[in-house]
Amino acid sequence: MTKEKLLHSIFPYAIAFLIINTFSITKAISQGAESIPTESSIIQSGEVLFKANCTVCHSIDDKVIGPPLKNVHQRRELSWIIKFVKNSQKVIKSGDTYALELYNQYNQTEMTSFDFSDSEITSIVAYIKNQSEITPSAATSIINPQIVNNTEKNDSNTTYTDILLIALVAILGIILLVLLSILSVLLKYISKKNNLTEEQNEIISEQKSLTSLLKSNFVIGLTVFLFTAIVLKSIIDGLFSIGIQQNYKPTQPIAFSHKLHAGQYKIDCNYCHTSVYKSKNANIPSPNICMNCHGVIQNVGGKSGISPEIKKIYDAVENSTPIEWIRIHNLPDLAYFNHAQHVQVGNVKCQTCHGPIEEMDVVYQYSNLTMGWCINCHRETDINSKGNAYYDNLVKIHNKKSKTPMKVEDIGGLECSKCHY
């Protein structure tokens, strides 16, 4: 075969090879442009956004109101996800096949549009990808939990006086037994002597009597002391318990279960208590916030079979009447507490003060919220100064004086005017 014929025979295959490879290279470049970041800081930011906005309708592994999001980055391109999150209605109306399938599969429920930037949505997808690659048994939050558990330490402090009193009673009991043993030995020793007078024998016989022992000044004094100590301790405990409502669990007008919403469906606390990151107080959610979810659920399930508790929410919305929730956690007016300062700046988890709220069917006051409890937290909680220039000079001054991490008490956390002004 001549060179010309060989070139003519190979030429079509070479062109095809170049076309295929050009397509692959273009696709690789496109995928590279839409690569999902793996930096821990971006994943952490995505987790915060996901838990605050997405967990109402979505889960990583399970179907909630919307589809599970595990490996969503493999089902759709990042650019498509960004468009859908920003305006799902527009994508559906454009005739997109996948969007229409989702729309029809989930009872024609439109996803809420979010005013997120491209980078914010990318961080959410990065978090979903990270969680998709972790097995359910090993899946944990990227955000480190608050290590401080002041409630347990405070409980140990409250039982200190009980332990001290029990130890004191035990010591006194041992001393009594020792004295009785010594007395018994001495009496036996004396009674063996034959040169005792009749009067001395009567005294010894009286000492051996149980009745006379109980009437002795020592036993009477010990009884009075123990009785007085128990009464005084009861009075002191009663005085210290004034104003403390630990374990207070009132019956609410609607049987709302945090175990169902925050536990099973993993709805972020900030979704309902919207002001916790930006205000002194954590607001009680209005009925309209409840209807953000239940309005969609009602459209899916229909009005048949609605529970009496859910009906109370509908009645409140229709009649424009507030739900009269009973306040559980209530600090005295003389104490100043700022939720935003602790949650947003201090990164204190809700469970640190409110306990395992995601496990409570009926919410109760988990911590005693006393002044000593708060002070212990300020003494033991480290300041997270990373990436916050406000603390730079404070950290330098602290490091010159101490090698231990900077605590809240080191920046004035124990000053009276911080909480009492």
Structure explained in plain terms:
This protein has helices spanning 3-33, 40-53, 72-75, 78-86, 88-93, 97-105, 118-132, 150-158, 160-191, 198-207, 210-214, 217-240, 258-264, 269-272, 287-301, 308-319, 339-345, 350-354, 371-380, 392-401, 416-419. It has 421 residues and is mostly helical. The longest helix has 32 residues, at 160-191. Mean pLDDT is 79; it is low at 1-8, 10-33 and 137-151.
Summarize this structure as a short list of keywords or feature phrases.
421 residues; mainly alpha
Blueprint (SSEs and pairs):
Layout: H1 3-33, H2 40-53, H3 72-75, H4 78-86, H5 88-93, H6 97-105, H7 118-132, H8 150-158, H9 160-191, H10 198-207, H11 210-214, H12 217-240, H13 258-264, H14 269-272, H15 287-301, H16 308-319, H17 339-345, H18 350-354, H19 371-380, H20 392-401, H21 416-419
